[in-house]
Design goal:
The structure is a single chain. The protein has no helices and eleven strands. It has 117 residues and is mainly beta. The strands form two sheets. Strands 2, 4, 5, 6, 9, 10 and 11 form a seven-stranded mixed β-sheet that branches. A hairpin with a 4-residue loop joins strand 5 and strand 6.
């Protein structure tokens, strides 16, 4: 089992920045992927960005150039730096951990990001 604890959501004005953090604990395997998904009101959950334990990254087209994902393997923590935020970025952001050994996904409880003036 893997537990994920997210932090860093909140209210921000358009054009502002936020940094999300997610710490993983439990049965952590050295080869894994961590990432962020979001669910906007009335929409399905979608990938925002993910990063492998080797550092390879993947971004949704809608956030490229504005969001940066990074990780600290020693702390089993993944970060999402969000800049130039837009109202359409308003969503619940979920941390994800993927265990390649068992092809299992783990999810955090989610953190709300609201972009509004």
């Amino acid at each position: 089992q893997v537990q994920l604890v997210e932090s860093g959501g909140g209210l921000v004005q358009p054009g502002g920045s936020l940094r999300l953090s997610c710490a993983a604990s439990g049965s952590i395997f050295s080869i894994n992927a961590m990432g962020w998904y979001r669910q906007r009101p009335g929409k399905e959950r979608e990938l925002v960005a993910d990063i492998s334990s080797g550092g390879s990254t993947n971004y949704a087209d809608s956030v490229k150039g504005r969001f940066t994902i990074s990780r600290d393997n020693a702390k089993n923590t993944v970060y999402l730096q969000m800049n130039s935020l837009k109202p359409e970025d308003t969503a619940v952001y979920y941390c994800n951990y993927y265990d390649f050994r068992y092809a299992m996904n783990y999810w955090g409880k989610g953190t709300l990001v609201t972009v509004s003036s």
